[in-house]
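Internal ticket #5521
Category: modeling
Description: The requester needs a full-assembly model to guide mutagenesis choices. All entity lines are attached below as received. Residue total reported by intake: 488.
Assigned to: D.W.
Attached entities:
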Amino acid sequence: MSRRGPLITLASVAVLAVIFLWANTVAGKSAAGTSATSAGATGTAAPTQTAKAPLSALYAGRSSGNEVAVAIAINGRKAAANLTPGQGGVIQLQGSVTGDKVTLTGGNGAALSGSVSGVAMFGTVTLGGGQQGFPFSAEQTVVEAIYTGRSSGNEVALAIATEGRKAVAYVCNGQTIEAWLQGSVNGNQVTLAGKNGTSLTGSLSGLALFGTVTPAAGLNFPFSAELSPRPAGVYQARITVNGLATRIGWTVLPDGTQLGVAVAGQARHPAPPLNLGTNSFTPDGGSFKAAPVAGQDTVVSP
Amino acid sequence: MTTEQTAVSLARDQYAKPLVVALASGCAVAVLLGVYARLHHPTHYALDVAGFSSPLYAKAWLTTAAAVFAVVQLVTGYRITRGAAAAWMPALHRWSGRIAILLTVPVIVHCIYALGFGTYSARVLAHSVLGCVFYGAFVAKMLSLVQRDKMPKWVLPVLGGVVFVSLIALWATSALWLFATKGVHS
Protein backbone atom coordinates (compact mmCIF):
# COMPACT_ATOMS: atom_id res chain seq x y z
CA MET A 1 0.00 0.00 0.00
CA SER A 2 1.10 3.50 -0.69
CA ARG A 3 3.12 5.19 2.00
CA ARG A 4 2.47 8.58 0.52
CA GLY A 5 -1.28 8.46 1.03
CA PRO A 6 -1.28 9.70 4.62
CA LEU A 7 1.30 12.37 3.81
CA ILE A 8 -0.77 13.57 0.86
CA THR A 9 -3.81 13.70 3.15
CA LEU A 10 -1.83 15.71 5.71
CA ALA A 11 -0.51 18.02 3.05
CA SER A 12 -3.93 18.60 1.53
CA VAL A 13 -5.33 19.48 4.96
CA ALA A 14 -2.48 21.92 5.51
CA VAL A 15 -2.89 23.45 2.05
CA LEU A 16 -6.65 23.83 2.48
CA ALA A 17 -6.17 25.39 5.91
CA VAL A 18 -3.62 27.86 4.54
CA ILE A 19 -5.94 28.75 1.66
CA PHE A 20 -8.80 29.41 4.08
CA LEU A 21 -6.60 31.44 6.42
CA TRP A 22 -5.24 33.42 3.51
CA ALA A 23 -8.73 34.08 2.13
CA ASN A 24 -9.88 35.20 5.57
CA THR A 25 -6.91 37.49 5.99
CA VAL A 26 -7.50 39.05 2.60
CA ALA A 27 -11.22 39.46 3.30
CA GLY A 28 -10.44 40.87 6.73
CA LYS A 29 -7.99 43.35 5.25
CA SER A 30 -10.39 44.52 2.59
CA ALA A 31 -13.06 44.97 5.26
CA ALA A 32 -10.60 46.92 7.42
CA GLY A 33 -9.51 48.85 4.33
CA THR A 34 -13.01 50.06 3.54
CA SER A 35 -13.63 51.08 7.14
CA ALA A 36 -10.36 53.00 7.21
CA THR A 37 -11.38 54.84 4.05
CA SER A 38 -14.79 55.78 5.33
CA ALA A 39 -13.31 56.71 8.70
CA GLY A 40 -10.97 59.12 6.96
CA ALA A 41 -13.85 60.82 5.23
CA THR A 42 -16.60 60.64 7.83
CA GLY A 43 -19.57 62.73 6.97
CA THR A 44 -18.65 63.29 3.36
CA ALA A 45 -18.21 59.90 1.77
CA ALA A 46 -21.30 58.02 0.73
CA PRO A 47 -21.38 54.85 2.80
CA THR A 48 -20.50 51.82 0.73
CA GLN A 49 -23.47 49.71 -0.26
CA THR A 50 -23.62 46.21 1.08
CA ALA A 51 -25.74 43.44 -0.33
CA LYS A 52 -27.11 42.74 3.14
CA ALA A 53 -30.02 44.12 5.03
CA PRO A 54 -29.07 45.84 8.28
CA LEU A 55 -29.22 43.78 11.42
CA SER A 56 -32.15 45.63 12.83
CA ALA A 57 -34.19 48.38 11.23
CA LEU A 58 -37.65 49.77 10.67
CA TYR A 59 -39.02 50.75 7.27
CA ALA A 60 -42.14 52.77 6.58
CA GLY A 61 -43.71 53.58 3.22
CA ARG A 62 -46.63 53.22 0.83
CA SER A 63 -47.58 51.43 -2.31
CA SER A 64 -47.13 53.47 -5.49
CA GLY A 65 -50.84 54.12 -5.90
CA ASN A 66 -51.29 54.83 -2.18
CA GLU A 67 -53.51 51.74 -1.84
CA VAL A 68 -51.75 50.52 1.29
CA ALA A 69 -49.33 51.79 3.94
CA VAL A 70 -46.55 49.39 4.91
CA ALA A 71 -44.42 49.24 8.05
CA ILE A 72 -41.70 46.60 8.14
CA ALA A 73 -39.42 45.67 11.01
CA ILE A 74 -36.42 43.44 10.55
CA ASN A 75 -34.33 41.97 13.31
CA GLY A 76 -31.58 39.61 12.29
CA ARG A 77 -33.17 36.93 10.12
CA LYS A 78 -36.71 37.71 11.21
CA ALA A 79 -39.07 40.24 9.76
CA ALA A 80 -42.57 41.41 10.56
CA ALA A 81 -44.82 43.89 8.80
CA ASN A 82 -48.11 45.67 9.18
CA LEU A 83 -50.16 46.52 6.09
CA THR A 84 -52.78 49.24 6.50
CA PRO A 85 -55.11 49.43 3.48
CA GLY A 86 -57.45 52.37 2.93
CA GLN A 87 -60.36 50.42 4.38
CA GLY A 88 -60.39 47.37 6.60
CA GLY A 89 -58.14 46.47 9.48
CA VAL A 90 -54.43 46.06 9.76
CA ILE A 91 -52.98 42.94 8.14
CA GLN A 92 -50.04 41.41 9.97
CA LEU A 93 -47.27 39.55 8.16
CA GLN A 94 -44.37 37.45 9.38
CA GLY A 95 -41.30 36.44 7.46
CA SER A 96 -37.60 36.29 7.08
CA VAL A 97 -34.59 38.16 5.78
CA THR A 98 -32.07 36.49 3.48
CA GLY A 99 -29.22 38.69 2.36
CA ASP A 100 -30.95 41.84 1.14
CA LYS A 101 -34.26 40.05 0.40
CA VAL A 102 -37.23 40.29 2.71
CA THR A 103 -40.14 37.86 2.33
CA LEU A 104 -43.27 37.99 4.48
CA THR A 105 -46.61 36.25 4.39
CA GLY A 106 -49.85 36.59 6.30
CA GLY A 107 -53.33 35.15 6.40
CA ASN A 108 -55.64 35.00 3.41
CA GLY A 109 -52.76 35.10 0.92
CA ALA A 110 -51.42 38.48 1.96
CA ALA A 111 -47.71 38.77 1.21
CA LEU A 112 -44.86 41.19 0.85
CA SER A 113 -41.54 40.73 -0.84
CA GLY A 114 -38.90 43.38 -1.06
CA SER A 115 -35.24 44.04 -1.29
CA VAL A 116 -33.20 46.45 0.77
CA SER A 117 -31.17 49.00 -1.11
CA GLY A 118 -29.29 51.44 1.04
CA VAL A 119 -31.80 53.07 3.38
CA ALA A 120 -34.79 52.12 1.23
CA MET A 121 -36.76 48.97 0.56
CA PHE A 122 -38.56 48.28 -2.73
CA GLY A 123 -40.86 45.44 -3.64
CA THR A 124 -44.36 44.18 -4.10
CA VAL A 125 -47.17 43.89 -1.59
CA THR A 126 -50.34 41.82 -1.97
CA LEU A 127 -53.31 42.26 0.34
CA GLY A 128 -54.55 38.75 -0.37
CA GLY A 129 -58.01 37.50 -1.20
CA GLY A 130 -57.02 37.24 -4.88
CA GLN A 131 -56.25 40.94 -5.24
CA GLN A 132 -53.48 42.20 -7.46
CA GLY A 133 -50.08 43.13 -6.07
CA PHE A 134 -48.93 46.72 -5.66
CA PRO A 135 -45.36 47.94 -5.97
CA PHE A 136 -44.21 49.79 -2.86
CA SER A 137 -41.28 51.69 -1.53
CA ALA A 138 -40.36 52.26 2.12
CA GLU A 139 -37.66 54.25 3.85
CA GLN A 140 -35.62 53.22 6.83
CA THR A 141 -36.79 55.17 9.84
CA VAL A 142 -34.52 56.34 12.56
CA VAL A 143 -33.75 53.82 15.26
CA GLU A 144 -31.84 54.83 18.35
CA ALA A 145 -29.58 52.47 20.20
CA ILE A 146 -26.98 52.68 22.94
CA TYR A 147 -24.09 50.23 23.16
CA THR A 148 -21.80 50.28 26.16
CA GLY A 149 -18.88 48.15 27.17
CA ARG A 150 -15.25 47.99 28.09
CA SER A 151 -12.01 47.12 26.37
CA SER A 152 -10.86 43.56 26.89
CA GLY A 153 -8.20 44.56 29.43
CA ASN A 154 -10.55 47.04 31.10
CA GLU A 155 -8.30 49.92 30.03
CA VAL A 156 -11.21 52.06 28.85
CA ALA A 157 -14.99 52.14 29.02
CA LEU A 158 -16.98 53.21 26.02
CA ALA A 159 -20.50 54.20 25.10
CA ILE A 160 -21.76 54.38 21.55
CA ALA A 161 -25.03 56.06 20.61
CA THR A 162 -26.51 55.32 17.20
CA GLU A 163 -29.39 57.04 15.50
CA GLY A 164 -30.30 55.69 12.12
CA ARG A 165 -27.02 55.39 10.28
CA LYS A 166 -25.19 57.93 12.41
CA ALA A 167 -23.17 57.16 15.49
CA VAL A 168 -21.20 58.94 18.18
CA ALA A 169 -19.04 57.47 20.90
CA TYR A 170 -17.20 58.55 23.99
CA VAL A 171 -14.26 56.45 25.17
CA CYS A 172 -12.37 57.17 28.36
CA ASN A 173 -10.60 55.67 31.35
CA GLY A 174 -11.96 58.22 33.84
CA GLN A 175 -8.51 59.72 34.33
CA THR A 176 -6.53 61.04 31.41
CA ILE A 177 -7.46 59.05 28.33
CA GLU A 178 -10.54 60.20 26.47
CA ALA A 179 -11.78 60.52 22.92
CA TRP A 180 -14.89 61.79 21.21
CA LEU A 181 -15.71 59.88 18.07
CA GLN A 182 -18.18 60.32 15.28
CA GLY A 183 -19.13 58.12 12.38
CA SER A 184 -21.67 55.84 10.81
CA VAL A 185 -23.42 52.51 10.95
CA ASN A 186 -23.35 50.70 7.65
CA GLY A 187 -25.06 47.33 7.67
CA ASN A 188 -23.51 45.70 10.70
CA GLN A 189 -20.31 47.70 10.44
CA VAL A 190 -19.76 50.61 12.82
CA THR A 191 -16.98 53.04 11.93
CA LEU A 192 -16.14 56.14 13.94
CA ALA A 193 -13.23 58.53 13.99
CA GLY A 194 -12.12 61.50 16.06
CA LYS A 195 -9.28 63.96 16.32
CA ASN A 196 -5.60 62.99 16.45
CA GLY A 197 -5.93 59.54 14.93
CA THR A 198 -8.55 58.27 17.35
CA SER A 199 -11.01 55.77 15.98
CA LEU A 200 -13.41 52.94 16.68
CA THR A 201 -14.41 50.16 14.34
CA GLY A 202 -16.71 47.31 15.18
CA SER A 203 -19.29 44.95 13.86
CA LEU A 204 -22.73 44.35 15.25
CA SER A 205 -23.57 40.77 16.05
CA GLY A 206 -26.95 40.23 17.61
CA LEU A 207 -27.19 42.56 20.59
CA ALA A 208 -23.41 42.91 20.84
CA LEU A 209 -20.82 45.08 19.19
CA PHE A 210 -17.26 43.80 18.89
CA GLY A 211 -14.33 45.77 17.60
CA THR A 212 -11.23 47.77 18.21
CA VAL A 213 -10.97 51.24 19.69
CA THR A 214 -8.05 53.64 19.46
CA PRO A 215 -8.66 56.25 22.20
CA ALA A 216 -5.27 57.84 21.62
CA ALA A 217 -2.60 57.50 18.98
CA GLY A 218 -0.73 54.27 19.57
CA LEU A 219 -3.31 52.73 21.89
CA ASN A 220 -5.38 49.94 20.35
CA PHE A 221 -7.80 47.99 22.49
CA PRO A 222 -10.19 45.26 21.45
CA PHE A 223 -13.57 45.81 23.04
CA SER A 224 -17.00 44.34 23.34
CA ALA A 225 -20.14 46.35 23.95
CA GLU A 226 -23.76 45.40 24.47
CA LEU A 227 -27.03 47.02 23.63
CA SER A 228 -27.77 48.87 26.88
CA PRO A 229 -30.83 50.52 28.36
CA ARG A 230 -30.83 54.00 29.95
CA PRO A 231 -29.22 55.42 31.97
CA ALA A 232 -26.43 53.95 29.84
CA GLY A 233 -25.15 56.36 27.26
CA VAL A 234 -22.88 59.19 26.28
CA TYR A 235 -23.26 62.38 28.34
CA GLN A 236 -21.64 65.72 27.68
CA ALA A 237 -21.32 69.14 29.29
CA ARG A 238 -19.54 72.28 28.11
CA ILE A 239 -18.99 74.71 30.98
CA THR A 240 -16.63 77.45 32.01
CA VAL A 241 -14.59 76.79 35.13
CA ASN A 242 -12.37 79.59 36.43
CA GLY A 243 -12.61 81.25 33.05
CA LEU A 244 -11.47 78.11 31.23
CA ALA A 245 -13.71 76.48 28.66
CA THR A 246 -14.13 72.93 29.92
CA ARG A 247 -15.63 70.00 28.10
CA ILE A 248 -16.69 67.02 30.14
CA GLY A 249 -17.67 63.65 28.76
CA TRP A 250 -19.12 60.69 30.61
CA THR A 251 -19.53 57.07 29.61
CA VAL A 252 -22.37 55.64 31.65
CA LEU A 253 -22.86 51.89 31.81
CA PRO A 254 -26.31 50.34 32.30
CA ASP A 255 -25.67 49.65 35.99
CA GLY A 256 -25.04 53.35 36.54
CA THR A 257 -21.25 53.05 36.64
CA GLN A 258 -19.81 56.18 35.12
CA LEU A 259 -16.37 57.15 33.88
CA GLY A 260 -15.73 60.68 32.78
CA VAL A 261 -12.94 63.08 31.96
CA ALA A 262 -12.97 66.88 32.12
CA VAL A 263 -10.77 68.60 29.58
CA ALA A 264 -9.74 72.24 30.01
CA GLY A 265 -7.07 73.31 27.57
CA GLN A 266 -4.35 70.69 27.87
CA ALA A 267 -5.34 69.62 31.38
CA ARG A 268 -7.39 66.49 31.98
CA HIS A 269 -9.08 65.56 35.24
CA PRO A 270 -11.52 62.90 36.36
CA ALA A 271 -15.03 64.23 35.74
CA PRO A 272 -17.25 65.15 38.67
CA PRO A 273 -19.91 62.53 39.40
CA LEU A 274 -23.03 62.96 37.34
CA ASN A 275 -26.43 62.72 39.00
CA LEU A 276 -28.19 60.40 36.59
CA GLY A 277 -31.62 61.32 37.93
CA THR A 278 -31.30 65.00 37.05
CA ASN A 279 -28.33 64.94 34.62
CA SER A 280 -26.70 67.56 36.84
CA PHE A 281 -23.30 67.77 38.47
CA THR A 282 -21.79 70.13 40.99
CA PRO A 283 -18.10 70.85 40.51
CA ASP A 284 -16.64 73.11 43.22
CA GLY A 285 -20.02 74.24 44.51
CA GLY A 286 -21.48 75.25 41.11
CA SER A 287 -24.40 73.42 39.58
CA PHE A 288 -24.42 72.46 35.94
CA LYS A 289 -26.42 70.34 33.54
CA ALA A 290 -25.10 67.61 31.29
CA ALA A 291 -26.98 66.30 28.28
CA PRO A 292 -27.25 62.80 26.85
CA VAL A 293 -25.72 62.74 23.40
CA ALA A 294 -27.67 61.22 20.51
CA GLY A 295 -26.28 59.51 17.44
CA GLN A 296 -27.16 62.47 15.18
CA ASP A 297 -25.33 65.00 17.35
CA THR A 298 -22.01 66.47 16.31
CA VAL A 299 -19.30 65.77 18.86
CA VAL A 300 -16.21 66.16 16.73
CA SER A 301 -15.95 69.68 15.31
CA PRO A 302 -15.17 69.54 11.60
CA MET B 1 18.16 -14.91 28.20
CA THR B 2 20.57 -12.26 27.12
CA THR B 3 19.87 -12.72 23.44
CA GLU B 4 16.16 -12.64 24.13
CA GLN B 5 16.47 -9.38 26.01
CA THR B 6 18.57 -7.92 23.23
CA ALA B 7 16.00 -8.98 20.72
CA VAL B 8 13.21 -7.40 22.74
CA SER B 9 15.10 -4.17 23.27
CA LEU B 10 16.06 -4.12 19.61
CA ALA B 11 12.43 -4.55 18.69
CA ARG B 12 11.52 -1.79 21.11
CA ASP B 13 14.17 0.53 19.70
CA GLN B 14 12.88 -0.22 16.27
CA TYR B 15 9.41 0.82 17.37
CA ALA B 16 10.53 3.73 19.45
CA LYS B 17 11.79 6.25 16.95
CA PRO B 18 8.91 6.42 14.44
CA LEU B 19 6.38 6.24 17.25
CA VAL B 20 8.06 9.00 19.23
CA VAL B 21 8.32 11.15 16.09
CA ALA B 22 4.64 10.63 15.27
CA LEU B 23 3.42 11.27 18.82
CA ALA B 24 5.73 14.25 19.34
CA SER B 25 4.57 15.78 16.05
CA GLY B 26 0.96 15.27 17.07
CA CYS B 27 1.59 16.89 20.45
CA ALA B 28 3.43 19.77 18.80
CA VAL B 29 0.53 20.37 16.40
CA ALA B 30 -1.98 20.28 19.25
CA VAL B 31 0.02 22.72 21.36
CA LEU B 32 0.75 25.05 18.44
CA LEU B 33 -2.93 25.16 17.47
CA GLY B 34 -3.92 25.93 21.04
CA VAL B 35 -1.28 28.62 21.48
CA TYR B 36 -2.09 30.25 18.16
CA ALA B 37 -5.82 30.15 18.90
CA ARG B 38 -5.16 31.73 22.29
CA LEU B 39 -2.76 34.42 21.11
CA HIS B 40 -4.33 35.38 17.80
CA HIS B 41 -6.71 38.23 18.43
CA PRO B 42 -10.16 36.96 17.44
CA THR B 43 -11.56 38.85 14.50
CA HIS B 44 -15.18 37.85 15.19
CA TYR B 45 -15.29 37.81 11.45
CA ALA B 46 -14.42 35.22 8.86
CA LEU B 47 -15.56 34.16 5.44
CA ASP B 48 -18.97 32.56 5.31
CA VAL B 49 -19.86 29.37 3.59
CA ALA B 50 -22.74 30.28 1.29
CA GLY B 51 -26.20 28.89 1.78
CA PHE B 52 -26.46 28.90 5.57
CA SER B 53 -28.21 31.30 7.89
CA SER B 54 -25.01 32.00 9.80
CA PRO B 55 -21.40 30.85 9.98
CA LEU B 56 -22.37 28.95 13.11
CA TYR B 57 -24.86 26.80 11.23
CA ALA B 58 -22.48 26.30 8.33
CA LYS B 59 -19.91 25.01 10.81
CA ALA B 60 -22.46 22.85 12.61
CA TRP B 61 -23.52 21.10 9.40
CA LEU B 62 -19.96 20.64 8.18
CA THR B 63 -19.08 19.09 11.53
CA THR B 64 -22.18 16.90 11.41
CA ALA B 65 -21.17 15.65 7.95
CA ALA B 66 -17.66 14.98 9.24
CA ALA B 67 -19.11 13.08 12.20
CA VAL B 68 -21.15 10.89 9.84
CA PHE B 69 -17.99 10.06 7.89
CA ALA B 70 -16.26 9.43 11.21
CA VAL B 71 -18.80 6.72 12.00
CA VAL B 72 -17.96 5.13 8.62
CA GLN B 73 -14.32 5.40 9.75
CA LEU B 74 -15.06 3.60 12.98
CA VAL B 75 -16.88 0.71 11.31
CA THR B 76 -14.36 0.22 8.51
CA GLY B 77 -11.40 0.83 10.81
CA TYR B 78 -12.69 -1.84 13.18
CA ARG B 79 -13.04 -4.37 10.37
CA ILE B 80 -9.59 -3.58 8.98
CA THR B 81 -7.95 -3.91 12.41
CA ARG B 82 -9.66 -7.25 12.89
CA GLY B 83 -8.42 -8.37 9.49
CA ALA B 84 -12.04 -8.93 8.54
CA ALA B 85 -12.30 -6.20 5.96
CA ALA B 86 -13.87 -6.67 2.58
CA ALA B 87 -11.65 -5.74 -0.35
CA TRP B 88 -13.28 -2.33 -0.79
CA MET B 89 -13.10 -1.36 2.86
CA PRO B 90 -9.56 0.06 3.04
CA ALA B 91 -10.37 2.41 0.16
CA LEU B 92 -13.63 3.44 1.81
CA HIS B 93 -11.74 3.97 5.07
CA ARG B 94 -9.14 6.17 3.41
CA TRP B 95 -11.57 8.26 1.41
CA SER B 96 -14.16 8.72 4.13
CA GLY B 97 -11.32 9.86 6.39
CA ARG B 98 -9.99 12.31 3.86
CA ILE B 99 -13.43 13.75 3.24
CA ALA B 100 -14.13 13.97 6.98
CA ILE B 101 -10.92 15.80 7.81
CA LEU B 102 -11.24 18.17 4.84
CA LEU B 103 -14.79 19.01 5.94
CA THR B 104 -13.43 20.09 9.32
CA VAL B 105 -10.79 22.44 7.86
CA PRO B 106 -13.08 25.42 7.12
CA VAL B 107 -14.60 24.88 10.56
CA ILE B 108 -11.33 24.94 12.47
CA VAL B 109 -10.07 27.92 10.49
CA HIS B 110 -13.21 29.83 11.48
CA CYS B 111 -12.91 28.62 15.08
CA ILE B 112 -9.31 29.67 15.45
CA TYR B 113 -9.31 32.76 13.27
CA ALA B 114 -12.61 34.31 14.27
CA LEU B 115 -13.15 32.98 17.79
CA GLY B 116 -9.93 31.66 19.31
CA PHE B 117 -9.31 29.39 22.26
CA GLY B 118 -12.29 30.05 24.53
CA THR B 119 -12.37 29.33 28.24
CA TYR B 120 -15.55 31.12 29.25
CA SER B 121 -17.62 28.00 29.89
CA ALA B 122 -17.03 24.31 30.44
CA ARG B 123 -18.46 23.48 27.02
CA VAL B 124 -16.30 26.04 25.25
CA LEU B 125 -13.16 25.03 27.15
CA ALA B 126 -13.77 21.35 26.43
CA HIS B 127 -14.42 22.17 22.77
CA SER B 128 -11.21 24.21 22.49
CA VAL B 129 -9.08 21.49 24.09
CA LEU B 130 -10.73 18.76 22.03
CA GLY B 131 -10.09 20.69 18.82
CA CYS B 132 -6.36 20.73 19.57
CA VAL B 133 -6.40 17.05 20.60
CA PHE B 134 -8.28 16.09 17.43
CA TYR B 135 -5.79 17.66 15.05
CA GLY B 136 -2.83 16.48 17.10
CA ALA B 137 -4.12 12.90 17.08
CA PHE B 138 -4.88 13.16 13.38
CA VAL B 139 -1.32 14.26 12.58
CA ALA B 140 0.09 11.52 14.83
CA LYS B 141 -2.08 8.94 13.08
CA MET B 142 -1.12 10.05 9.58
CA LEU B 143 2.58 9.92 10.50
CA SER B 144 2.10 6.52 12.14
CA LEU B 145 0.43 5.24 8.96
CA VAL B 146 3.48 6.16 6.93
CA GLN B 147 5.65 4.03 9.24
CA ARG B 148 3.02 1.44 10.04
CA ASP B 149 5.36 -1.54 9.51
CA LYS B 150 7.56 -0.24 12.30
CA MET B 151 4.72 0.41 14.71
CA PRO B 152 3.22 -1.78 17.39
CA LYS B 153 -0.15 -3.13 16.25
CA TRP B 154 -2.15 -1.14 18.80
CA VAL B 155 -0.93 2.30 17.64
CA LEU B 156 -3.27 2.81 14.68
CA PRO B 157 -6.47 1.64 16.43
CA VAL B 158 -5.64 3.73 19.49
CA LEU B 159 -4.83 6.89 17.55
CA GLY B 160 -7.82 6.27 15.28
CA GLY B 161 -9.96 5.87 18.37
CA VAL B 162 -8.69 9.14 19.81
CA VAL B 163 -9.40 10.92 16.52
CA PHE B 164 -12.89 9.43 16.38
CA VAL B 165 -13.80 10.12 20.00
CA SER B 166 -12.47 13.67 19.91
CA LEU B 167 -14.35 14.43 16.69
CA ILE B 168 -17.61 13.08 18.09
CA ALA B 169 -17.00 15.06 21.30
CA LEU B 170 -16.24 18.17 19.23
CA TRP B 171 -19.50 17.63 17.38
CA ALA B 172 -21.40 17.14 20.64
CA THR B 173 -19.96 20.30 22.21
CA SER B 174 -20.72 22.45 19.16
CA ALA B 175 -23.18 21.23 16.54
CA LEU B 176 -25.33 19.16 18.89
CA TRP B 177 -25.37 22.03 21.39
CA LEU B 178 -26.36 24.48 18.63
CA PHE B 179 -29.11 22.23 17.29
CA ALA B 180 -30.42 21.61 20.81
CA THR B 181 -30.44 25.29 21.81
CA LYS B 182 -31.19 27.11 18.55
CA GLY B 183 -33.05 24.48 16.56
CA VAL B 184 -32.20 22.28 13.61
CA HIS B 185 -32.18 24.26 10.39
CA SER B 186 -29.77 25.36 7.72
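Resolution: model delivered.
Comment from assignee: Chain B has a mean pLDDT of 85.
Ticket closed.
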